Amino acid sequence: VQLVESGGGSVQPGRSLNLSCTASGFTFYNSEMMWFRQAPGKERELVAQILPRGGIVRYAPSVRGRFTISRNNVKKMVYLQMNDLKFEDTAVYYCSSRTLVDKSFQVNWGQGTQVTVSS
Question: How far apart are the C-alpha atoms of 54 and 40, rounded to whole Å?
Fold first, then answer.
């Protein structure tokens, strides 16, 4: 199982970034996919979630209306389009999957990608 994030970087407030996560080694089409983030000194928090078919998405209140999660089940990729970035969006962003396997959930994590919003 492997989740590899890309697309992080350093941007000014109000700008955009698009994170990507490439998945392999598990049944991507049947997995919930999430983006989490962890800022220095804070707990990891759920940013966005997308269910297997892509029809249902959920967002943390702090990013709703600015971030968009999407997925491509053929390419086995999940994306996080981040617009109007704010200082408080600075964090390491992690891609995560959750798959039901034999009546239990298997959770996997990527290594993370740094997003820094600064002027």
Answer: 31
HSE, side-chain direction, 13 A CA sphere, residue 112: 12
Q: How many CA atoms lie less than 13 Å away from 79 in the CB half-sphere?
A: 11
Q: Cα angle vertex 79, ends 78, 82, to 5°?
A: 160
pLDDT in tens, 50-94: 998 777 999 999 999 999 999 999 999 999 999 999 999 999 999
- In terms of C-beta density within 10 A (0-12 exposed, 13-18 middle, 19 or more buried), how is residue 68 classed? middle
DSSP string, 16-85: -EEEEEEEESS-GGGEEEEEEEE-TTS--EEEEEE-TTSS-EEE-TTTBTTEEEEEETTTTEEEEEE-S-
